Amino acid sequence: MFLTILALVAAYFIGSIPWAYIISNYICHINIMEHGSGNVGATNTFRVLGPKYGSIVFLLDLGKGFIAAMIGGLVGGDALTVWTGLIAIVAHTLSIFLRFKGGKGVATGAGVIFWWCPPAIICALIVWAILALTTGYISIASIIACLSCCVFIWLFNGTGLEIFFCCLAVAYIVYKHRSNIKRLFQGTENRVDWKKVLEKRKNKHKE
Q: Which residues of the chain are modeled with pLDDT < 50?
């Protein structure tokens, strides 16, 4: 029982680590919460700081979910992994280090599922990349990639517990995107202009 409680507490604090905030403040010297959407996650980091730092934050946030799931798996098996994984996702969105603010949980959720079923996450990331590049809407890409992950876990013969966890996690992540969904219907959602992103990168290389 003590190890189970310790694993749950560890999952929360690991999930709460605000990598976007840390990198933006201590490496780039800006507060990510005061720029873009104000969201403390990989998507807003990508918008504000570019693909390099956005990718770093994504991998670090993914690592949080993976480590939290791994701790749960080692201490109590798949059943505990469900709880440590969910807690890590919620912690990312309600970080104790940021007065219970945070990101949307996409990358952290991907890390949890990567512990269980790497092929499902790889396929979901391909879906995300295709939609992000073709539509320019990161929110649409994230929501549909999350939904597709449940299908991919099923296709890769995931257990009922894995599918159940994925559905819970996706429901929570979609709920956290409710403001994005509202803006999409209103036609005011932020859209990435990939041509401008490439132009900025070319100009930086020239400098």
A: none
Cβ(127)–Cβ(121) under 8 Å? no
Q: Which residue has the tokens 């890390």?
A: 111
Q: Is 101 helix (H, G, I), strand (E, B) or coil?
A: strand
DSSP structure class, residue 100: S
> Which DSSP category does 29 fall into?
-
Spatial separation of the C-alpha atoms in residues 103 and 173, rounded to whole Å: 10
Cα–Cα distance, 154 to 156 (Å, whole number) = 5
| Domain limits, the chain | 2-199
CB 106 within 8 A of CB 125: no
Give the residues across from 95 on adjacent strands. 101
pTM: 0.89
With tokens 């700081």, the residue in question is: 49
Beta carbons of 141 and 107 less than 8 angstroms apart: no
Measured CA to CA, the distance from residue 4 to residue 71 in angstroms comes to 10
Radius of gyration (C-alpha) of the chain in whole angstroms: 17
* pLDDT tens digit sequence for 28-74: 999 999 988 888 999 889 888 888 899 999 999 999 999 999 999 99
